[in-house]
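Sample pair:
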Amino acid sequence: MDVADERPGAPVGASARVDNLFLRLHLWLPLALGALLLVLIPATDLDRRFALWWAFDAATGEFPARGTVWADQILHRGGRLAIWVVELLCMAGWLRAALARRHEEARAWAFCVIALALSVGIAGALKQITNVDCPWDLQGFGGDRPYVWLFADRPDWLPRAQCFPGSHSASGFALFALYFGFRDTRPRMAAGALIGALIVGSVFSFAQQARGAHFLSHDLTSAFLVWFICLGLYLWMKRHRRAAATRMYNDPPK
């Protein structure tokens, strides 16, 4: 179902109802869940508890998955390459649809190209400025740095860190772009893309946490970040198209 019927003559009440339902499911519900997790995780020290429970081996003082083929080579490096392949396929889909003058399809593929690039790029840029440590650098996890809560004042003598949010998991969750890109024209494909993005992003998160590269909150933040990037771009494009359709209706070509 579309965000709203873009035809100028469409019933206003029905359009508003669709808008409200869409925003409740795609904006307000994720915002509420994200806010809850933002309070719950630091209050319960869930990051460290969760990592100690399943990923870190206290007996050996290391993350057993670090340096393994499945985590380092297949899911980390191979996964990164796979997302670049998806980006290239989206570009090829856009070019093919544009040449064939299939405008709706071309717009959908173009959205995917832009949303994928923005999601990966913004997550990667944030890592450079947030100054948050990886678990493997921290005391209690085989490292020598003190644990500093995400929003606490980090001591100036600590070396800079680049581990928040999880950019690798963000690249997996960036497949949300396919959901938003095709939800109006190919709902089945969009539903499959949504499930696929959740699976791929979760698998990438699992691998990174198993290696000691990220805490749970790092990857959950990536999921919410990418979701809102894709949603924001989607709403902006819908608003732009709706405004263009209204102008065309009010000022028909002579």
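DSSP finds eight helices and no strands in the chain.
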